[in-house]
Amino acid sequence: MGRIRLVIFDIAGTIIEDHGEVLSSFRSALEKNGISATDAELAEWKGASKQEVIRHFVEREHADNRQSKIDKTYSDFRSLLEDQYRQGVHPIAGVEETFTWLREHGILIATTTGFYRDVNELILEKTGWKKWLRASISSSDAKQGRPAPLMIFRAMEEAGVSAALEVINVGDTPLDLQAGSNAGVAGVVGVLTGLHQHARLRREPHTHIIGSVAELPALLQKDFQA
Predict the structure, then answer these.
(1) Domain spans of the chain, in order of start
(2) 21-86 is classed in which CATH architecture?
C-alpha cells in the first residue's frame, strides 16, 4: 500500500464530544414546526447535511408550501444549534496528540462535516484547530452531502492530494463510512466516540473500527506503514 498523505476527520462525535447537541436541535426545531421524527430516525441521519435532513422530514409530511416550511425549520435549527455550541466545545481526548503525530510524520490533516460553514467556523475558532488543517469542508461547500463522497474529494483537492489510496477517512457515523467507501480511499475508519456503537458501524463498509482517534497513530503504524 502506498504512503498515506492525508487523513480526513469528521467533526462532531469524532474529534469533538457529541453531547446530543445536533439531535436535540433537530428534535426541537422539527417539533416547533409540527414535523414528526423519532430519535432513531434522526440518528440514522447523523453526519448528513443538516439542510438535507430538514428537507427529508418536511417533505415526508407536507405536500404544500414545503419550501417555506423547510426554510423556517432550518432557520430554527440553526439558531438552536449555534446557541449550544457557543456555550462550549469539548475535544475528544487525544485529538491534539494525534494531530501532532500526523504532522510529525508528514501527513496532512483535513476535516469534513455535515455542519454548514458558520457552525464549522465556530467550532474551529473555539478549539483553535485551524492551524492544523490543510482543508476544512462544510456541507455547504459541496452539491451533495454524505453518503456522497464529494466533501472528501473537495478536501483532497484543497490539500493537493489526488490519489484516493493516499487518504484515510475517519468518522463516527454510518454515513461517514459510506462516504469513505464511495470515495475509494485506502482507510475507512469508524470510531466509537459518537452516537453509534460497534454493532451499528460494522454493518457498513469499513476497513477498521477503533475506540477513538487517539488510537489512530498506532493503527497507521501497524496497518498503513506510516
Answers:
(1) 6-18+90-223, 21-86
(2) Orthogonal Bundle (1.10)
Question: Look-up: residue for cell 469508524?
Answer: 190
Measured CA to CA, the distance from residue 123 to residue 13 in angstroms comes to: 13
pLDDT digits (tens, 9 = 90+) for 121-165: 999 999 999 999 999 999 889 989 899 999 999 999 999 999 999
Q: Which CATH number fits domain 6-18+90-223: 3.30.870.10, 3.90.190.20, 3.40.50.1000, 3.40.718.10?
A: 3.40.50.1000
Return d(Cα 54, Cα 71) in angstroms, integer: 9
Placement of cell 430538514 in the chain = 54
3-state secondary structure at position 28? helix
Q: What is the pLDDT of residues 100-125, one digit of tens each?
A: 999 999 999 999 999 999 999 999 99
List, in order, residues 6 or more apart from 150 with CB less than 8 Å away: 142, 143, 144
Q: Are 154 and 142 in contact (CB under 8 A)?
A: yes
Residue 88 corresponds to which cell in the numbers above? 462550549
Quick check: helix, strand or coil at residue 137?
strand
> Element (H or E) spanning 135, and its range?
strand 135-137
